[in-house]
Design brief:
The protein is 40% helix and 23% strand. It has 16 helices and 16 strands. The chain binds the ligand CSC[C@H]1O[C@@H](n2cnc3c(O)ncnc32)[C@H](O)[C@@H]1O and zinc ion (ZN).
């Protein structure tokens, strides 16, 4: 097992006070041994390699808690529409034509973009999840995978069987890099009896549930007409929140909804850019965190965003709340927590999200020797308000370097881009 010592400006994300302007992180195999000031590595720790990144920030890898990775194939295919026309008229007809192989290459494209922008873990909800798992394992990243399920009869039940199979085959696979959740799409696409069936299957396996909730006003109105309550109240009454749940979006919430989410320890994946692009609305993030809800960050798919860059997403998350509430809302360090430690909690990855002894070595280095990072008054502020995807220099997951000096080590980027281009254009031609 290789031993590595990284030196640089270390932001461990283990508490607001923790920062080492000249620090070091010692890694042995897949785990972090020590984090601290320069010279803090344990006596006797003899690294096989010293990585001097004195002008870089060394921080935990970013965690994207809500995406549909293979939707990179739809990037730029369906823009400037609200949610339901976007889904029904453009996205679902395109997705109906995707083969397992298309989903594999779309996911590979997503992973390439994610690694380049410092994302080491994603939470994905889609179809052909065995191929998504294969892509994640070969890219070397970490993921929580959920089979997206729509409907109740033939389609929904087949998807549920696939989700169970996925759990059995992949949960904790790849040295623990994979986790499996259950992915009922939304309260407006899954009937109550189906949601309860999903809940009981997930419960019997001890798995969490990943679901879209309260995304648009139209959803609130549909569920009110069908069930006479809000989506959060409906799902709670069905018992869905009795186990671990990751609820994506949660834009339109009443105070009573927020109390339920807090009481049931439902985690929320906040997707500000998708919510803006589809004109869904602005989620009440400070109101949720004030109540103790764990709010993490996601990009959603690359068709409603249109990128998978969590640096951009952090900036949007912060600015959106400042516009909605006031300039003190959602300060930089809290946004960084959403993209790291809180993401790990939301997905049930207990050993990632911060740099701490005993934790898995998932980390990135950000090249701070660039004009947009001077003067260096505040590292968290620079990371949230000034950084962009291309600033990421190195990416390590589970102790393995998968990008070094901006060179991808686990993926063939040119081949992936060519395959994605060919496959997406082929489907678009068929739909003309
Ligand atoms: C059944 S797999 C997941 C399913 O979700 C669709 N999707 C992508 N983005 C959103 C969104 O913001 N709200 C609801 N559904 C979304 C995706 O296209 C897949 O069909
Ligand atoms: Zn989504």
């Amino acid at each position: 097992m290789a031993k590595l010592l990284l030196r640089g400006m270390v932001l461990p994300m283990s508490g607001a006070e923790d920062f080492y302007p000249q620090g070091e992180v010692a890694v042995d195999g897949d785990r972090i041994v020590s984090v601290g000031a320069k010279g803090s590595a344990p006596r006797g720790f003899e690294p096989d390699r010293l990585l001097d990144r004195s002008n870089d920030v060394i921080m935990p890898g970013l965690i994207n808690t809500h995406t549909h990775a293979a939707m990179t194939l739809l990037r730029g295919y369906a823009d400037d529409l609200p949610l339901m026309p976007w889904l029904e008229d453009k996205v679902w007809p395109f997705e109906a034509k995707l083969s397992d192989e298309d989903i594999y290459w779309g996911t590979m494209l997503a992973l390439t973009e994610m690694i380049r922008s410092g994302t080491t873990t994603m939470s994905d909800m889609y179809a052909s999840m065995d191929r998504v798992a294969e892509a994640v394992l070969s890219a070397g990243t970490r993921a929580a995978l959920a089979r997206g399920m729509i409907g109740s009869a033939a389609n929904g039940l087949q998807a549920l069987r696939e989700n169970i199979e996925l759990y059995r085959a992949c949960h904790r696979a790849g040295e623990g890099r994979l986790r499996v959740m259950f992915g009922p799409h939304a309260p407006y696409t899954c009937p109550g009896d189906f949601l309860q069936r999903v809940k009981s299957e997930a419960e019997s396996l001890g798995a969490g549930i990943h679901i879209h909730v309260a995304e648009t006003e139209a959803e609130i109105e549909t569920i009110r007409q069908e069930h006479g309550r809000t989506p959060v109240q409906w799902l709670n009454d069905l018992g869905l929140f009795d186990g671990p749940v990751l609820a994506a979006h949660c834009v339109h919430l009443t105070p009573a909804d927020m109390e339920i989410l807090a009481e049931k320890q439902v985690c929320v994946a906040h997707n500000p850019e998708s919510n803006m692009k589809l004109n869904s609305g602005t989620a009440p993030v400070p109101e949720l965190t004030r109540r103790g809800v764990v709010v993490s960050l996601g990009t959603d798919g690359a068709s409603s965003n249109n990128n998978l860059d969590l640096f951009g997403e952090m900036r949007s998350a912060a600015l959106q709340q400042k516009l909605r509430v006031d300039s003190s809302a959602l300060p930089a360090y809290e946004v960084l927590e959403m993209a790291t430690v809180k993401g790990a909690r939301a997905l049930g990855f207990e050993e990632v999200g911060m740099l701490a002894p005993g934790f898995k070595a998932d980390l990135i280095t950000v090249d701070f020797d660039q004009p947009h990072f001077y003067p260096r008054f505040s590292i968290p502020a620079h990371l949230v308000y000034a950084a962009h995807a291309g600033d990421v220099r190195d990416v390590m997951v589970n102790g393995r370097m998968i990008m070094e000096e901006r060179r991808l080590l686990s993926l063939d980027e040119k081949k992936i881009c060519a395959e994605a281009e060919k496959r997406a254009k082929g489907i678009a031609r068929e739909l003309l």
